[in-house]
Specification:
Structural class of chain B: alpha+beta
Strand content of chain A: under 5%
Order of helices and strands of chain A: HHHHEEEHHHHHHHHHHHHHHH
Order of helices and strands of chain B: EHEEEHHEEEEEHEEEEEEH
Oligomer: heterodimer
Largest sheet of chain B: 5 strands, antiparallel
Low-confidence stretches of chain B: none
Distance between the termini of chain B: 47 Å
Number of strands of chain A: 3
Radius of gyration of chain B: 19 Å
Structural class of chain A: mainly alpha
Number of helices of chain A: 19
CATH topology of chain B: Deoxyuridine 5'-Triphosphate Nucleotidohydrolase, Chain A
Amino acid sequence: MNPKEFLLHECRNVRSALREVLRHDYSAGSSKDFYTEFCERLDFLESLLKPVDPTDIRMLETFADEVSMLSMFVHQIERSHSGEFPWPFTEYLTELATPLCKENLTQNEGKPIIRVYAEGGLYSYKINLEADLSVLNVGRRIFTIVFPRTLKHHVLLHAIFGHEVGHAAWTIPKHNSDLRGKVLGPLRSAGPLTSTSQATHWLRNAEAPAEIEDLRKQYEAEPIYTVVDTTQLSYWFQEFMCDLFGLVTFGPSFIAAHKTLLLALDPTGHRWGPEHPPYICRRAMLWRACQHLGWNDYVKAVKDTQLRSDLQTFLETYLGSNAPGEWEDVFTSGQIATALDALKAILESVGCPPYALPDETTLLPLVRMLSDGIPPCGSDLSGTVKPANRKVDFRHILFGGWVVAEKPAARESDGEEDEEEKDQFLQINKLCELGLLQQRAIDMHPAGKKE
Amino acid sequence: MTALEKSAILTNIKDRKLVVSPILSGNQIGASSIDLRLGNVFLMVRARGLSHVDPKQFAHSAKSTADDHEFEQAKRQKHERHEAPFGQRFLVHPGMLVLVPTLEWVKLPDNLQGTVTARSCWAREGLSIATASLIHPGYAGIITLELANLGQIPLGLYPGLRIAQIAFHELTGPASRKDMGSRFHMAFEPIEGNVSKGDEVFLGPDSRS
């Protein structure tokens, strides 16, 4: 069997596997889109491969990559069991991201095909949008959402997907130029990261924390490392942009998930690398961004004293009450304000509304429900003959969850719970997960739609 | 014990003593009961799972550690778990037993007991619901329904359908907190019970010793 014959054989294997995976539940929704798309890709690939000269090595290499990619996509379906990730959250997330990822492509109004699966590891949170349409000249991109398997129920942490949506938007040409110019432009216009030489100087600054300095020396000892190059700076700015993306799309719950996950992986907040700036710089930027968004004023205006106190605790825990230190404060408030406003305008222009903080009459019932051990949603608990359930933005539910997660134990312990029940954070996440499911039902029901 | 009629049920809800959330429409509340909807998790016995249910195996579990591979594997292999989004059908075949949660979160005060029964329209199709129908005072969580198809043809079920109803009975006095403790407190989805709990003495010597 020569390489060309083997590739044709592998195309048949992929087709067979594609049929085989129809046994599995394809995430939240139909498998038809995915199946049809991949049948078409396989048909096209075979039609291109058959006339290829068996000695044309370069063409065969290209086709080997294509077949391999199709095989990888199909195999991941086997890990796309809807029991391994929270599909109500996934549905809300895809509704949020789809307008952003819609393109002027040939089929299905340019909507991407959503694929969801779970992987091991805390680094698993990912959203990938097929970067370049392949040689198969397909009409739709594959939009992949990856959850960490162990954090299935942790919907509060899933707010970190706001950052990942930013990476997906970055890969779409029509957004990329806007994001580079209007969002990153202001951030790159001043400060210590405006050029590679300034960034290098900044890292060598005597004010830099000791861990930053140690890591820099380690990197400089490696012969291939050139301190800060343009690629590194480009990656860093993409990370800053995606953090702003997360903030604008998910609001306070993003800040909390961001701090919880990133500090778990880097407790000092000082680690940095070619692709990621130090967490403390990202936190400093978010602190200034939240000032611009008026979160402190929002909290001060809350009338309910308990809720106001809970919100203050939340802000102090996840943002801190003090301004960032001088070294890590790499952007001015003005730069961040311009970038944020531009980002909000971009989102609004594509029908992906930025997150707006809830009014007190929306947030307070959610927090009270959670504090009483009831899944938070727009359910009417007043005991009226015709319940008036409300539409509630799923991100408000996450916000309420984080506010309660920071309170002292919300439930009285009767001393008979098992280890899982004693884990308040898990319980709150599970309540919020169920709240999202119930909110979905409220949104679908005709009585809810009227309101 | 007194059964609560509609206005008494609503008064208990209004006073935040009783929680049934969410109630999607007014017609879910009957003269003396509230309809319950099907949740989205289905736990069914796996064809290649356990050969039989032996209370001794559960007793063994009570003494075992978390790394007791044999027990944990048998427990996990007993059921298949499916999650179905809204709009997705789940078929219950004749003779099949499926554990499902309600969509609603139910929280009972210490003086009310719940009784779950089938909605008659589904019972007429052969669907038996809630063979363990008593919900104890102080319970909080989803309610696990034990569904069995007693008819001759498969039944298609969809998450969100109203399939059961819960009636409430007032106790002669509040239940004591000690008696209200339950393994299923704050249940989020169906789990298997422990059929040997408290009866280990009748199961003969521990086979491991």
